[in-house]
Specification:
six-stranded antiparallel β-sheet; 409 residues; elongated; 10 helices; 2 domains; alpha+beta
């Protein structure tokens, strides 16, 4: 037994010595490396072993250029239509030209670019791939020994790049631009922000229930306020106030003409006064948040707001959850639609590109229809929000797999 233990200890000692020697050599190589020649060596390596060959760059260039051109065209049309629709309102409200350009349309373009990206990636892929197939370029590529799977590489590189860009834009860049754009619309086009909230009731923290009959945002003041405190299912105290006012300078609430009833078994203690400063874990802005604010929140803000509303027992989070999950599902659909587009249009057909482009537009319309229907189901509460948001992607992923397997290779 002792002999076996000794053998094991020796093996562990040898293994430790070997690891230490390798670590010393690694750190010695890092320290004594000639960094002046490192960058040229890396460049030479990638020159001899490029991640994308000439064919990949050719396809990727066609992909991105066709997509960029189609997006520029559709955004130009959207801007012209939007100007014709809102020009009278801008004139009546005396909207300054610099604000129209820099506050509205400069933030209008990223929003609609991100919205249309999946569909126009799909149309762009079908358009230039069917053109390549019609010119027998796809046939030449496959006849040259390049497999269909290998030919998909530049398509997937382009799709992943656009997917990542859309995810960053939708989650972190566009919400900030939406705030500026929607604030402009609220002033110069149509007012959607409420200045008065009624019948506010929420659980601000576990066991603390707040009710305000009416709250005016301009004055930061509410009327007829009730504040109930529970321990489990037992009511501990009940506070009423004729007015409640938010003080942004010190972040406290001031109650006017208040009265508190505290309960201890069968005993009741009543206190009252003209003014009382108290801390309530809520700010006035939370009384006015509606679904119009969802596009103005970053991913973190949306997730935080949804969790906070769930903790308070609020049931109006469906539009916010739909917006949150769409920011993940929509970029992913770019990859799925790219695969469908290549599978549909890589085969040369009689009659040219018209049929393939028509199929692409029809599938795009079906995708948009699915997206809107499932969003309505989620908002109405008939379907779990996450499942409803991802159903179009799941269906189209099955279609993409089927088409890919049936594509001649």
């Amino acid at each position: 037994m002792k002999q076996n233990i000794g053998i094991i200890v020796n093996k562990l000692r040898n293994a430790t010595t070997i690891c230490c020697d390798k670590s010393k050599r690694l750190f010695s190589g890092i320290i004594h490396c000639d960094y002046k020649t490192l960058l040229p060596r890396i460049k030479e390596f990638y020159r001899q072993n490029p991640p994308l060959n000439t064919l990949d760059r050719y396809i990727l260039k066609k992909f991105l250029s066709t997509f960029a051109l189609s997006i520029v065209l559709i955004i130009s049309i959207c801007v012209v239509v939007d100007i014709s629709e809102k020009l009278d309102s801008f004139y009546e409200t005396h909207a300054p030209l610099d604000k129209i350009i820099f506050q509205y349309y400069l933030n209008f373009i990223p929003y609609f670019t991100n919205m249309f990206s999946p569909l126009f990636v799909f149309i762009a892929v079908i358009f230039f791939t069917s053109k390549m197939a019609y010119n027998s370029e796809i046939t030449a590529i496959l006849a040259g020994g390049v497999s269909f799977r290998r030919m998909m590489k530049p398509y997937m590189v382009g799709a992943f790049g656009i997917t990542l860009l859309c995810f960053i834009l939708s989650g972190y860049v566009i919400p900030q631009s939406n705030k500026i754009r929607l604030d402009f619309e609220n002033v110069y086009y149509h007012t959607f922000k409420n200045e008065v909230a009624s019948n506010i009731q929420m659980e601000v923290t576990p066991g603390i229930i707040l009710y305000i009959d009416r709250f005016e945002h301009s004055e930061n003041r509410g009327f007829h306020c009730f504040l109930q405190k529970f321990e489990g299912k037992k009511l501990v105290s009940f506070t009423t106030a004729q007015t409640i006012e938010w003080s942004p300078s010190d972040s406290v609430w001031h109650m006017g003409n208040w009265m508190t009833r505290s309960f201890d078994g069968v005993f009741e203690n009543v206190t009252a006064g003209d003014g009382l400063d108290t801390l309530i874990d809520v700010v006035p802005m939370e009384f006015f948040i509606n679904e119009e604010y969802a596009p103005q929140m970053t991913n973190y803000e949306l997730r935080h707001y949804i969790n906070r509303q769930h903790e308070r027992g609020m049931g109006n989070t469906q539009p916010f959850e739909v917006e949150y999950h769409k920011r993940f599902a929509t970029p992913v659909c770019i990859i799925i639609l790219t695969l469908i587009g290549v599978s549909l249009s890589s085969k040369k057909v009689k009659g040219g590109m018209g049929l393939q482009i028509g199929i692409g537009i029809a599938l795009s319309a079906i995708y948009v229809l699915f997206l809107e229907i499932t969003a309505i189901f989620a908002i109405q509460g008939n379907t779990p929000v996450m499942l409803a948001t991802w159903i179009p992607n799941i269906i189209f992923a099955v279609v993409a797999t089927f088409l890919y397997r049936r594509t001649p290779k």
